[in-house]
Amino acid sequence: MRFFRNVVLAGVLAIVSGATVAQERLSVVATTGMIADAVREVGGDLVEVKGLMGAGVDPHAYRQTRSDIVAMTRADLVLWHGLYLEAQMEGFFQDLSRNRNVVELGAQIDAAVLRGHDDYDDKFDPHVWMDPDLWTLMVAQVETALSATSPEHAAVFEANAAAHLDDIKALSTYAKTALATVPESARVLLSAHDAFGYFGEAYGFEVMGIQGISTESEAGLNRISELVDLLVARDIRAVFVETSVSDRAMRALIEGAAAQGHEVKIGGELFSDAMGAEGTYEGTYIGMIDHNATVIAGALGGEVPDRGLNGRLSAGF
Ligand code: ZN
Hints:
By secondary structure, this protein is of the alpha/beta class. It has two domains: 2-175, Rossmann fold (3-Layer(aba) Sandwich); 182-299, Nitrogenase molybdenum iron protein domain (Rossmann fold), CATH 3.40.50.1980. It contains ten helices and eight strands. The strands form three sheets. A four-stranded parallel β-sheet has the order 2-1-3-4, with helices on both faces. The chain has a two-stranded parallel ribbon with strand order 5-6. Strands 7-8 form a two-stranded parallel sheet. Helix 2 packs across helix 5, helix 2 packs across helix 6 and helix 5 (132-149) runs antiparallel to helix 6 (154-179). The protein is globular. The chain starts with a helix and ends in an 18-residue tail after the last helix. The model is unreliable at 1-22 (pLDDT under 50). Zinc ion is lined by residues 60, 127, 193, 195, 272-273.
């Protein structure tokens, strides 16, 4: 009986201390899935992270919901990408940062490594996650923000960040190797919007989007017919759709090319501004980029392992 009581007591204590640990966890809200993933990697068990934008959500168009606002007001730390990615939330974050712990990660990155924006002279291309080498700078900023918020855990954040940065380096090497197998004449990436500028610079691809750097404005008919002519003239045979952007314009493009007797196929679906479903490999930053590099290289005539870098991609090629 006494033994039993002790076991029960131990159980109760475990629950109580578990609850205490849960309460002490740093609560972080991140806008994009990519940032939430970095927080999860760097923060480990010490943080509880809520990502506002799930699979298939377009950050250029996203507006904060009522429950987002509640979560952000209660959080110990709020991280947003910035660089005009969350275009509809700029004003909200400016207000929030007056009295809450809010960090615009992109603003901490040296502007010299950023690409200019097509539409605005004073803005930059926000899609830095497309080049793993650049993404390491954002992960380092996540570490800085977590350590500033919870200095007593700085050593753990530093160790976690170092381990994650090693994984990103391996990803970068894989992507370079895989994409270098694409024949030079086929290194053209046409997708729904201009999310792949950094990708193009990193891997020597010419990239073009039906829409511009933001998805805010619809592509005009002129843009479509211009791209149809280009597909035919350059003999481009595969184009790519994106999980967070409608594929309507892409279908018009393919039909337009077909009307000129040029067959174009959809090379695959890419994760441009949102990761895959939560709980899947593609729902992590590493999995997202592994998927993109593998799909692009595979569809454009390169040689890639069937299931990507880690053998974990859900679809074979
Ligand atoms: Zn975008």
